[in-house]
Design goal:
This protein is mainly beta. It folds into 2 domains: 277 residues, 6 Propeller (Neuraminidase); 110 residues, TolB, N-terminal domain (Rossmann fold, 3-Layer(aba) Sandwich). It contains 3 helices and 30 strands. Strands 1, 2, 3, 4, 5 and 6 form a 6-stranded mixed sheet that branches. The relative contact order is 0.13.
Length: 428
């Protein structure tokens, strides 16, 4: 959860947390520019997918076309109308998206097509083949290909979000698709899991756990599920772990010398090297995508504030003086902005600023909003919020649309973390 400084104190007292085949026609040069936080969405019209083959193809096509439209709408690149919904005819649109959903012989073939409008000249064609239960992955990939065609950068529909689900006194680590589909637990420890963080290739998840009753330790688990491996169980707290961009090191908070400080470990958890040295609590390290800097939270001035230091611990400077009582830094994958939270009378709001601390903007407000993390394309922020009651996962597209809630079967959800694009998704 949020409150990195408070959490570091509480941690010491707690428990008395595809097989795919694709081809493309020569694409037309259709692009839009999305380089600012607020960009105009291009209007695109989704036609119903043509169903072919087995009797189940009709129902499958209907679910696939709705998923595709939702993916495109959630990309922040498009405003989507749906041809199967009454009153949503193509109006002032630049392109039409559709295709065919074919089932037969235990195989699925999804053909995704994009045409310009009104001439209906072909812009993009993609084909995906595999097992019928892989349909959702193929739809996500086609949506990402459409985003790539129009923006020059792939979308993030085929990525995942890790999060924490409270279950009584326990907290377990879960994963889901970026749209909330296919949620499932990765841990069944009957303990407290905290602070999930992805490896650069999306194959692993670091997290903190109290399993075994020995206090907070750092573990790693495959993102597809499987055995959990111990990374650090040193004396005191072992928390807030995150991989460096090259995957060779782990930044984390250790209190092995009595005070919570930021350390670097090798990827296996060995060779600890202390980066901070202060009587305050230093926690929540977040890597710059270059690997040359680390943002973190410290209460060295009396209240929690976000700081930035070089990767060797030198050149420490406060991120911004424009807002105070800040926490939970997250560096944009583009390297240009840092998201964080700042305390308000109701809880915490999410802010973003340039990496040098300038141009501070409040991007999410209202009640308690915690643990922001960027999408791999830098167009969205995922965070936890109690704005509608119990805590749940939300996504903001950093535009004038309100944050959208990611449904996970009515479960309470905390501490979301967005995977890289090249994530191992496993069997649907």
């Amino acid at each position: 959860m949020i409150k990195g400084i408070a959490a570091a104190v509480v941690l010491g007292m707690a428990l008395a947390g595809f097989a795919s085949d694709a081809f493309a026609q020569a694409p037309s040069d259709v692009r839009i520019d999305i380089r600012s936080e607020v960009a105009r969405r291009i209007r695109i019209h989704a036609e119903a997918l043509e169903a072919a083959g087995d009797r189940a193809a009709g129902a499958g096509a209907a679910e696939a076309q709705e998923t595709l439209a939702n993916d495109l709408d959630a990309s922040a690149a498009f405003a989507v109308s749906r041809g199967w919904s009454q009153g949503q005819e193509p109006f002032d649109v630049q392109a039409i998206v559709g295709g065919r959903f074919s089932l037969g012989g235990g195989q699925l073939r999804l053909t995704g097509l994009v045409w310009d409008f009104p001439a209906r000249r072909p812009i993009l064609s993609r084909e995906y083949r595999g097992r019928p239960d892989e349909w959702r992955t193929f739809v996500h990939r086609f949506a990402d290909d459409v985003v790539l065609q129009f923006t020059g950068e792939s979308g993030v529909a085929d990525s995942r979000i890790a999060f924490i689900v409270p279950e009584g006194r326990d907290k377990e680590l879960w994963v889901m698709d970026a749209d909330g589909a296919r949620p499932r637990p990765l841990t069944h420890d009957g303990s407290i899991a905290l602070s999930p963080s992805w490896s650069p290739d999306g194959s692993l998840l670091l997290f903190t756990s109290y399993r075994g009753g020995t206090g907070p330790c750092i573990y790693v688990t495959p993102a597809t599920g499987g055995n959990e491996f111990l990374v650090s169980a040193r004396a005191g707290n072992n928390t807030s772990a995150s991989y460096s961009p090259d995957g060779r090191e782990i930044a984390c908070t250790l209190s092995l010398e009595g005070n919570p400080e930021i350390y670097l470990l090798d990827a296996r958890g060995g060779n600890p090297r202390r980066l901070t040295s202060n009587r305050a609590i230093d926690t929540s390290p977040a890597w710059a995508p270059t690997g040359r800097e680390i943002a973190f939270t410290s209460d060295r001035t009396g209240s929690p504030e976000v700081y930035v230091m070089d990767r060797d611990g030198g050149n420490v400077r406060r991120l911004t003086d424009e807002v105070s009582y800040t926490d939970s830094p997250a560096w944009s994958p583009r390297g240009d902005r840092i998201a964080f939270v700042a305390r308000t009378s109701e809880g915490f709001d999410v802010y973003a600023c340039r990496a040098d601390g300038s141009d501070v903007r409040r991007v999410v407000s209202g009640r308690a909003n915690e643990n922001p993390h960027w999408s791999p394309d830098g167009r969205h922020l995922v965070f936890a919020s109690n704005r509608d009651g119990a805590f749940a996962v939300y996504v903001t597209d950093l535009d004038d649309r309100p944050p959208r809630r990611i449904e996970v079967g009515g479960r309470v959800a905390l501490s979301p973390a967005w995977s890289p694009r090249s994530v191992a998704t496993g069997t649907p």
